[in-house]
Design brief:
GO terms for molecular function: catalytic activity, acting on DNA; DNA binding; helicase activity; hydrolase activity; nucleotide binding. One of its GO terms (biological process) is DNA repair. The chain is of the alpha/beta class and 447 residues long. The chain has two domains: 14-247, no CATH class; 256-400, DNA polymerase, domain 1 (Orthogonal Bundle). It is 52% helix and 14% strand. It is built from 17 helices and ten strands. The protein has a six-stranded mixed sheet. A hairpin with a 5-residue loop joins strand 5 (118-121) and strand 6. Helix 2 (28-41) runs antiparallel to helix 3 (49-74) and helix 8 crosses helix 13. The longest helix has 35 residues, at 256-290. The protein is elongated.
Length: 447
């Protein structure tokens, strides 16, 4: 009976899908952008405008990347259905999928990333974002594996479709594409095979899909089955409501002047933290070059005076207790240049391994306990990470994490994502976006 049914289906149903069909457009991102814009234009006194501006920028960047990928998918001249921007809730699971592509041979979940910088994948399959300037690496940080992320989405989608019998043998595959045309993908030859074969640039999408369609598959589905899969997914798709309350401050500021004053004080606090990191980095570098202890360059007490008084001339520098003609003549111009340039100065460049060795050699001798437990080096690394990410996203440093969060990280030194979530000020969103980079710095500091 089953054989006769299959023969009947073959005779009565055709595979008329010859090129891509956009079966579901993305309306969610546009709706969020409109809601954010309307909220900003309302000029309500108790809105977190900085958070609104930040999210407007992030969603706009993400939308641009996905539109570039959609263009490639629609112009590949290959047969499949495209579902753009799908949010599934099934049992206790949730999955936000950028694209679900349904072909006659398989289903593909495509994750889109639009990041600033280049991507390096190590032999172990670890993803690193590399920032270069003038052909020189200025920052390298770990990032959460997008392969692991899209792999979870595949498991949830497969569980959904198999639970109601929509599919039985149809394979569900995955891929990650990077939509920034300037991004260079550097995959180690020894990286895991699933990463080498499934991480692509957005201009390689057609070649990738054609190659996948040429492979053998346990199924060769009819058009009717493709639409059935698409409809099942859409039946379980949810549109997340816009949470306006998340952009409202606990209480409106008493006056605009008060708000400006508080904001300015907060920004100054973050700027001082970054300036402190620059001065400490300079001290470490100089002590290494000269073979001296860091406190012979300047002490922690002098450091605090630099931050408090921020001298702009040699005469003002000499007024600081402990700074004599010798220190002023040897280091004065460097110190004044760092202080003058403040937050616009990139963190003084030191090789992490060299700095770590110098710290280990000198920590028991330092009367200032500058290097106790390598705390200053980790602090420097975390502040540098915060500064770099804030410039990439064009937000204030405290949007990455606050000084209070920084101190909690230095005290607890989390070793896992679970432990990181126990840090004050780190929620699931920040953990996903910045967590891997923070954990990598802590791990590196331990060795």
């Amino acid at each position: 009976m089953s054989l006769l049914k299959n023969v009947f289906n073959i005779l009565t149903d055709k595979r008329d899908i010859k090129e891509s069909i956009l079966y579901k457009e993305s309306t969610e991102t546009s709706a969020i952008l409109k809601s954010l814009t309307d909220l900003k234009l309302s000029n309500a006194a108790n809105l977190d405008n900085k958070k609104i501006d930040n999210h407007l920028k992030l969603f706009s960047i993400g939308q641009t990347g996905e539109q570039q990928v959609l263009f490639e998918l629609q112009n590949a001249m290959l047969p499949y259905l495209i579902l753009h921007d799908v949010y599934l809730e099934f049992e206790e699971y949730q999955a936000q999928m950028d694209f679900v592509i349904i072909t006659h041979k398989f289903i593909l979940v495509l994750e889109v990333k639009k990041l600033f910088g280049n991507i390096h994948v190590t032999d172990k399959g670890e993803f690193q974002r590399v920032i270069t300037k003038n052909n020189r690496v200025v920052n390298k940080e770990g990032m959460y594996s997008p392969i692991n992320q899209v792999g979870r989405h595949v498991e949830i989608l497969e569980k959904l479709l198999k639970s109601n019998g929509t599919i039985t043998k149809c394979p569900i595959r995955y891929a990650v594409t990077f939509a920034n045309p300037k991004t260079i993908l550097d995959l180690s030859k020894n990286a895991p095979a699933n990463i080498q074969s499934n991480v692509i640039r957005h201009d390689q999408i057609k070649t990738f899909l054609k190659s996948e369609l040429d492979k053998k598959s346990p199924v060769f589905m009819l058009d009717q089955q493709l639409y059935q899969i698409a409809d099942t997914i859409l039946q379980n798709h949810k549109q997340k409501p816009f949470n306006q309350e998340s952009y409202v401050l606990d209480s409106p500021p008493p006056t605009v002047k008060k708000e400006t004053s508080l904001s300015s004080a907060y920004n100054d606090q973050e700027t001082d933290q970054d300036l402190k990191a620059m001065l400490v980095a300079y001290r470490l570098k100089k002590s290494q070059e000269l073979g001296r202890k860091p406190y012979h360059i300047f002490t922690n007490k002098m450091l605090e005076e630099f931050l408090l008084k921020q001298p702009s001339t040699v005469d003002e520098l000499l007024e600081i207790e402990g700074v004599g003609s010798k220190i002023a003549s040897e280091y004065g111009e460097d110190l004044l240049a760092i202080i003058r340039r403040g937050k616009d100065l990139p963190v003084y460049e030191i090789a992490h391994s060299e700095a770590h060795s110098q710290l280990a050699a000198s920590k028991e001798d330092s009367v200032d306990n500058v290097n106790k437990g390598n705390g200053e080096l980790l602090r420097l690394s975390l502040v540098e990470f915060r500064t770099t990410r804030s410039k990439e996203l064009n937000v204030k440093p405290y949007y990455i994490f606050t000084n209070r969060t920084l101190e909690d990280i230095l005290t607890k030194r989390p070793a896992s994502m679970k432990e990181l979530l126990n840090i004050e000020g780190i929620g699931p969103k920040k953990a996903e976006e910045f967590g891997q980079g923070i954990l990598e710095l802590i791990k590196r500091d331990r060795h």
